[in-house]
Design goal:
Order of helices and strands: HHHHHHHHHHHHHHHHHHHHH
Largest sheet: none
Shape: globular
Strand content: under 5%
Helix content: over 70%
Low-confidence stretches: 1-15
Radius of gyration: 23 Å
Length: 474
């Protein structure tokens, strides 16, 4: 086999040429318009219901409920006591449902009610109970929509689609700040001003459940309406064969996901990036108020442009990541800005400079987390290995959600929180570059196997991502 033949064979696996490019674009756009607005909206409410407690604190929840700063950190952390354990089982359970919309809509209705009922909380213990329930019902949602997305798209198409979810998360944080700004001005009515956050956002989440229930197709074939679409879809499935094998549940594939080095790297990157995401998004109002001296009203609205910029940066980074078929170097590059931002927060006292540092940090808030999620999704096959790897990535990575509030316990400067997050971004950068180098070496070795016909890789299996034809996105 010649070198050119090998390159054509490898490229045909993950960068194939469609039979009808224009028709394929139309079908992909159809998938996008049907799924992405819905999934992004639901993840918007998921992020909103999870992070709105930070805005509620600034609006007076801590005083009305009689909780200390340390107790507030515990309330934020305890959500992950139930959030984390359900992530992987939730994915497996969802895949056993013939109609996943029932599972996802039921999950969303339950967590929306938990968010709504938070307005009745009046003590530390009641807030703890509601956050535990919120985590239980919301825990596996992102993993589930990430898995569903892989059933519709090629690996190199996942970066942009994942970016839509995290862009909606940035909008949730910005929207939470806008609501917080508005309710801070409420001085009348039967409810305390902070309770309007949970009332408004809880009702909106409940309404969105209707869209999810009636709008989510059972599988991609339900969206195929014409003969042209059927032919294009079959062509796409044929070219995605290595990625979306039709095999059933296999415990060997589940076990291989746990021991795969790229899963281990993915978990470390996810954990360290989530420390930044959860710490910054939850405590930014407090950082602006306590650490920089802004008023409660200013702390609410000054966070809005930070989150909007974070979302735009992630959309741009994800687009570049897909086009260049590159993940790790993008994560490392954007982390340089985040690292610089945390150094400024630790090293300077000027509030204007510290506020500027928040804009630098926004390069790392969503980009590393989202691109890493699409990275493990793109590079793992067969399907149950991929489902398991995504679940592991989210389960162990989100342990950071319990840890970040514990390092952000010492206002006004939050020195420990900023220093810990800085260290995490350094670790994430090193792991991203190392993983990219490892995958590049595997691509080179796979190519040599195809050229020579001699498989000297000493692997126990030669299917899925261990097949020499599989080309990794670095």
């Amino acid at each position: 086999m010649s070198k050119n033949d090998v390159e054509i064979q490898v490229e045909s696996i993950q960068t194939p040429v469609p039979q009808d490019l224009a028709a394929e674009k139309r079908l992909v756009h159809k998938f996008d318009w049907r799924l992405m607005p819905m999934f992004a909206t639901m993840y918007f409410f998921s992020s909103l219901d999870r992070s709105n407690i930070g805005n509620a604190k600034v609006a007076g929840m801590d005083i009305d409920c009689g909780i200390t700063d340390a107790q507030f950190s515990t309330i934020v952390s305890v959500l992950y006591a139930t959030y984390i354990p359900v992530m992987l089982p939730g994915v497996w359970l969802m895949k056993q449902c013939k109609r996943p919309r029932y599972y996802l809509a039921g999950m969303m209705l339950c967590w929306s009610l938990c968010s709504l009922f938070t307005l009745f909380a009046n003590s530390y213990s009641s807030l703890l109970a509601l956050r535990l329930l919120l985590g239980l019902f919301e825990g596996s949602y992102f993993s589930c929509i990430a898995v569903i997305t892989t059933d519709y798209y090629f690996p190199h198409e996942l970066g942009r689609r994942t970016a839509y979810f995290f862009a909606s998360s940035s909008l949730a944080s910005a929207f939470g700040g806008l609501i917080g700004t508005g309710i801070t001005k409420i001085n009348s009515g039967r409810l305390a001003s902070w309770k309007y956050i949970f009332l408004i956002e809880g009702i909106l989440s409940c309404v969105a459940v209707v869209w999810l229930f009636f709008g989510l197709p059972d599988n991609p074939t339900k969206l195929i309406k014409t003969e042209e679409e059927r032919e294009v879809f079959e062509d796409r499935e044929r070219r995605r064969a290595f990625y979306v094998d039709q095999g059933g549940f296999d415990i060997k594939e589940v076990r291989s996901a746990f021991t795969d080095p790229k899963t281990i790297f993915s978990v470390i990157i996810q954990f360290t990036q989530d420390i930044c995401l959860y710490g910054f998004s939850t405590f930014l109002p407090s950082i602006l108020k306590s650490g920089m001296g802004f008023s409660s009203l200013e702390a609410q609205y000054l966070g809005v442009p930070v989150y909007l910029l974070a979302g735009l940066i992630f959309l741009a980074a994800a687009e570049i990541s897909d086009k260049k078929r590159m993940r790790g170097p993008i994560i490392a590059f954007t982390n340089i800005f985040g690292i610089t931002g945390y150094i400024l927060l630790l090293a300077v006292d000027n509030s204007s400079v510290k506020y500027f540092a928040c804009y630098l940090i926004c390069f790392s808030i969503y980009t590393g987390t989202g691109i890493n999620e699409s990275w493990i999704s793109s590079n793992t096959s067969p399907r149950y290995k991929r489902y398991t790897a995504i679940g592991i990535n989210q389960t162990l990575g989100n342990v950071s959600g319990a840890i970040s509030p514990q390092v952000y316990r010492a206002p006004p400067n939050y020195t420990l929180g900023h220093a810990f997050t800085l260290g995490c971004l350094v670790v994430s950068t090193l792991c991203s570059l190392t993983c990219s180098w490892m995958l590049h070496k595997r691509n080179v070795h796979n190519k040599r196997v195809l050229e020579t016909g001699i498989d000297d890789r000493k692997l126990k299996r030669t299917v899925g991502d261990d097949a020499p034809e599989f080309k990794f996105i670095i």
